[in-house]
Design brief:
This protein is an alpha+beta fold. The protein is built from 14 helices and 16 strands.
Length: 450
Amino acid sequence: MDPKSKIAKLRSLDEATLREEILAPLLMRMEFKAVTVYHGSKEHGKDLIFFDYDRLGVREYYAVVAKATKLTGDVSSSKGLKAVLFQVEQCFNVPYENLFNMARVTMDRVWVVASDSISTGAEQSIFSQLEKSNLAKLVRFVPVENLVELIDEHLPAYWDDSLEPIDVVKEQKQRLIAFTRQLLLALGGEPSAIAGTLKQVVNSAFPPQVRPASNRWVNTVSPYNVEIDTIDPDHAHDFWSVNYGLLRPLYLKAKQDLYYAMSDFDEILGNYDDVITHTNPAEVARVFDHRMSDEYPFHRASFGRAGEAVQSMQYLDEAAREIEELRKSLQKLGKLEWATSLVDSVADLKPDIQAYITNVTDETFLMCWKIESENDRARLRMLYDPKADDYNAILTTDHQKTIQTSYHEPITTRPITVNDVVERIQEAIRAHFDQLLINAGIIVGEDEKL
């Protein structure tokens, strides 16, 4: 690809693609450390963050302001340049909330990287403004021509996959294998079994299937670390809350919202640690209410991340109480083990569900399920021909092939997923449980029969 074609390709990009598909991998190839796409409502000008070590071994923090437009004119007349200047100043003036280390760091240098041209006048106009605060020498401009040169040197496979040097491919393979081994060890795998599994992944077209545990999942993934979270075994099953849906994702979201809210303050880290280490959803909500709900920034919070965390904790508390009452009622009926095995069996149907929704052609369709019981256990089976079974033992769920994700303008849609179907199944199973309890004269949350 000739230089003009490369420049034309870069000029066609939007900022999200520039950040995530070019700058992030490019900076990693240039051996900068902990490259993080930081773009969002809390970025304060910083589109990407990374650091390097100086000659004395001290960390220097860098921020990148990424632009997918031409930068021309001067600050006094161009809205675009005013925005760039503001972002650069924000990079220096507002500390970076290093959430992974619970620390605040300030930027030492800022790069303005553009996938289009940067005129000399624009660069000088911004420099003249930054000189007033002695920041001009800490800012570098990287126009599209320089960006092409960096990609040619460090990320040539962006232009053509065949340009990737074989030694780089080998290094990538070894890093991926090492990361996968570390992840499997962290999940409790035996070293000998892991070695055989990785050989199968590398050498076979039929890699081993992954069957996730119901009480464990990856909570956070970042350039710093991967954190694996767990849930108390008694609450790891997909019982459906009438008002809030499945408990496990609600539990995860409540923890995540609280985790993200921590970027706004650092005064109550001890209380945060006390909350976040619990694996019982009810205890997470209870301890949060006792130790943190009256503290800044959660006290009377109604918006922002703190408001979202408070709302999530309220939902978690109500859902956990409801599920615990359901479990007690099912135990009273002698059906708790049976019900637990039934809700857990839905996960085994995911491959069949995926095959079904992939091939279905109708925009709206009905799916049928049968509960099969043996001794004190039960499992759900997908029915392709419900007429052949006892209809009284069948659950039905209705679905749409296209899901509407926004009820405001503009309306957005997406294809139905396996998880969409699973949620409807668990909702139908919960309704089945409620009917069993009503038939037995038991109300969820009541200790005595009617």
